[in-house]
Amino acid sequence: MAKLILRAFPFTKHPFSQYCQQPGSAAPRSSKTVEGRTHKWNMTLRGLLEGNVPAKPILAYALMRRRGVRVDSFTLLFVVKACGLITHGVVVGKQVHAQVAKLGFQAEVVTQTALLKVYGMFGDLDAAEKVFDETPQRDLVQWHALLAAYSQGHRPCSTMKAAQRMVNESVMPNEVGFVSIISACSQRKALPEGKRWHGYAIKNLAVLDTFVHNALIDMYAACGCPSDAYNVFKNLRNKNIVSWTSMINAYGDNGHPNEALDLFEEMEAVGERPDEVMMLAVISVCTKLGRSDIGEWIHEYVVRCGFGESVRVANALIDMHSKCGNMEKACSTFDGMTRRTLVTWTAMIQGLALHGHGRAALTRFSQMQREGFRLDEVVVLIMINACSHAGLVEEGKHFFRSMAEEHGMEPWMEHYGSMVDLLCRAGLVNEALDFVMNMPLKPDAVIWRTLVAACRNQGNVNLAAEVLDCMMEMEPEDSGNYVLKSNLHAMIGDWQSVQEVRSSMSCKKVAKTQPAHSYVQPTTMSM
């Protein structure tokens, strides 16, 4: 279809400027007759566009051109919108853009904005910027289209620069623009800028709508400020399901799972019905708590609310039960599913591997292959980990070798790390060291740390000390390396070396900055 559309455009073979009214040009026919024909064709294009078959307006436009019907800004607008709805629309869009420029419609801000949106939709941000820059008179809608294009293209810095440029040119964004700006602050975790734009919105907007509030909640959550997120949430009068979900995620992602569940109970009390996204958020919170009783409670709630047939929810439940140690429930959830995806299989296999059921994980892997699912890097990583936990050294080696030899995959650093863990768990420290020394990638600190732990556990203190020296060169400010070395010397009673390590930490001002923490949940859920 895309090739047919491109062939339909006679851009180079048939000059069409004679058919289109250019600024300042005289119409060769009666003005009313020409305008009437153009209007009828525009209505046809609009009807085809609304018929959800976007290729048809483009083909009709090519026919319109061949018949010598004059083109106006509405014609180009409908065609540009159609470009945004087809697979290769950016290719056709660039050709339409060339016509817009050649015919002198660059001053038509509506057409230019539509072009900008098409480029943003297909990720061609350079072309979007060009459209924006060549528009002489920009309106608020076009500014917002540029912000949205940057936001969709994951260019938060560009979004924030464009927003500042708006303010400098005395153009004030509305609620739509603020959502893009706040989302950019969220992506960058730019708390000071986010607070500044929050204050600007309060000062310049009469009312902050629900969409802006939700964006602010997400921004404060991303910046690690759940209390600020809750202040925004509690001042929101018209909360929707997105508001509740954002706030629950804000608590869950920042180490406050109990508060997240309390908020979920509050939502239930006010009669707000959860959706699938909300259920996934709550299941994630229960997973972080690691309590099987909470896990069973949310599972029953999911079934009661009619989400039991959702594959995404079932996958999350399998992962949750596995991480809560309830493998019986994880297996029964898996067996009860009528449709399984690759994520389903990997969640089940990973759960079995996590609890040392290596043989069972291999059995599930064989079943997965028989059902036609293709192996990928994540599945291989999970299988190597399964073999590591179960002590299946040869099987793990086979999975690693098969990546390149049978499947043409390039191992990640995580695959190398899992192989080192596999060998170290089996007591093959020397083989693990040889494996590390022959890696095509530079080993990271996790791999070295795994080796150190294995050397220490097997009493090979000298080798452990050598590896630790390499780690401390790689990560001179990581307090964990110093603690490891100190504990290693303490294990053999070398207290002078322990003191030297501690003194070195003090001189280099290295301190433990992330102490461990745990959760206590004395009450049970009843809902």
Automatic annotation (TrEMBL):
Pfam families, alphabetized? E_motif, PPR, PPR_2, PPR_3
* The protein's name: PPR repeat
Q: Could you tell me the keywords of this UniProt record? A: Repeat
Question: In residue terms, where are the PPR repeats?
Answer: 240-274, 341-375, 376-411
Entry keyword Ribonucleoprotein: no
What GO MF terms are annotated? mRNA binding
Instruction: Name a single GO biological process.
Output: RNA modification
> Magnesium: present as a keyword of the record?
no
Natural source organism? Musa troglodytarum (fe'i banana)
